[in-house]
Amino acid sequence: MKYVLLLFIFIFSLPTFSQETISESSIKDPDEVPFAVIEKVPVYKGCNKKSSNVEIKKCFNDKINSFIASNFNTNLGRTLDIEDKSIVRINVFFKIDKTGKITQIEAKSEYPELNNEAKRVIRLIPQLESPGYVRGKPVTVPYFLPIQFQVDNPKSSANTKNDKFPTFRGCEETMPYNELKKCTLDKIADYVRVSINYELADKLFPTQKSTQFKLEFTINKKGKAENITAQAHKKAMAIEAINVLKRMPKLKKPGYKNGKAVDTSLSLFMTIYF
User: For the whole prediction, is pTM greater than 0.85?
Assistant: First the structure.
């Protein structure tokens, strides 16, 4: 199996985004500042400290993307049974502390081996030239980095004949695996968007026009969402997202592996506008 690096999406900060479950996420660090409002952006080595924030952000993005592309072990995929031409996404979360060191690294994908490799590479990133600053004071800056790969593995197609992704109503279960996966995830995201309490979001974030949250859950063998957890900027928003998913109707079909119904772990990272 060969992995082809397809795309590194632009890095952006996840403002004060909790890495905890909602039961532990209500306490905020006053020394953590969202990237969107920080006065001085963290500076990657080789970037010009005297440049504007916009230029430093771009330089940071370019440097870290190049670093990951050069250091990620693309041969690791040969041991994983992933369908040919699949797009694999790894969501990486980390923080830049007050000394410019990258800490609290997390990686989320369907494949633990890729999660570990993503964390290994992020740990190799050298300490930044300077951390983020607000009013002359160093602060911690949270970041979110999505990494995407396209898989080149023609031999895997024969192994996935009897595998099916969970099927949301309105998606055709006869679709190829990747098309069905996209359809189901898009439909779930649409359901969340139309069901979320926008008045609550507006009340929680009166000075903003959008917010983000991440949902992790399982579609069980009966097609129902369970084991739901959420990460959000406010605890109340995380609870609302969980409640929305709890109300989601049972899917038309669960996931199948080798022709047998299985529990399928899913995750959604969403931005809503209000």
Answer: no
